[in-house]
Design brief:
Length: 192
C-alpha cells in the first residue's frame, strides 16, 4: 500500500466502532485522558507501524507491546500534543518530524484510561532515540501484515474483579493485545 493511498483513506475515513465491551464502564468510574501516536514509518522499503516493547521491570504493563503515548499532562494543550510529547519522551522522535493525519475512535480501558489514538507519518529522516527507562526496543509491524491479519482473537481477561473482552494477535514472537490490538484492528478496518 502506498503512502498517498493510506493518507487518502485515513483522511476520508468514517471511524468504525469496535464492539468489544470496553464502553461499559463501572458506575461512577472517571477515566483519565490519554493519547497515543500510531506512527507510520518507512522501514526497509515498506510502510510500517512503529510499536514499542515496554521494559520488563516497569510496574504497569511490563513487556507489553504498545504505542508511544500516555496520560495528558496539564501542560498539554490538546491530546494531540500529549501523543507527540510522549512520542518524543519514549522514542526520541522530534515533534516536527511527525505529520498528524487524523484521530481514530477513542478506546476506553478497564484500567480507567480513555485513549485517543492519532495516526501520523514519521519523516524518513527522523532519528529514534529510545528512553530505555520505558522502552526495551521498537517493533516494526509492516502495514501489509496488518492488512492481511484476519485472525483477531478475543480473550476474556479479569481486571479489577471484572471480566473484559480484549482483542489479540500474534506477530512473529510478539503477542499484541488489549488497547494496542483494538487500535490496530480499527486501523486495519479503515485501510481495507
Amino acid at each position: 500500500m502506498y503512502k498517498q493511498t493510506i493518507l487518502h483513506k485515513l483522511q476520508l475515513s468514517v471511524l468504525p466502532e469496535l464492539n468489544d465491551g470496553r464502553r461499559q464502564l463501572m458506575q461512577g468510574q472517571t477515566l483519565k485522558a490519554s493519547a497515543v501516536l500510531v506512527p507510520i514509518f518507512s522501514f526497509n522499503d515498506q510502510l510500517c507501524i512503529v510499536l514499542t516493547q515496554r521494559q520488563g521491570f516497569l510496574r504497569h504493563h511490563a513487556n507489553q507491546i504498545s504505542f508511544p503515548g500516555g496520560k495528558k499532562d496539564p501542560t498539554d494543550k490538546t491530546l494531540a500534543d500529549t501523543a507527540l510529547r510522549e512520542t518524543f519522551e519514549e522514542i526520541g522522535v522530534d515533534i516536527n518530524a511527525v505529520s498528524i493525519i487524523n484521530k481514530l475512535s477513542e478506546i476506553q480501558t478497564p484500567s480507567g484510561f480513555s485513549i485517543t489514538p492519532y495516526t501520523g507519518f514519521i519523516a524518513e529522516h527522523a532519528q529514534f532515540k529510545l528512553n530505555y527507562q520505558e522502552v526495551r526496543h521498537l517493533v516494526y509491524l509492516p502495514l501489509e501484515v496488518l492488512l492481511q491479519q484476519t485472525d483477531w482473537a478475543c480473550y476474556s481477561v479479569k481486571i479489577k474483579n471484572r471480566y473484559h473482552q480484549v482483542y489479540a494477535f500474534q506477530y512473529n514472537e510478539h503477542f499484541i493485545w488489549g488497547a494496542t490490538a483494538a487500535i490496530l484492528k480499527q486501523l486495519s478496518m479503515i485501510l481495507k
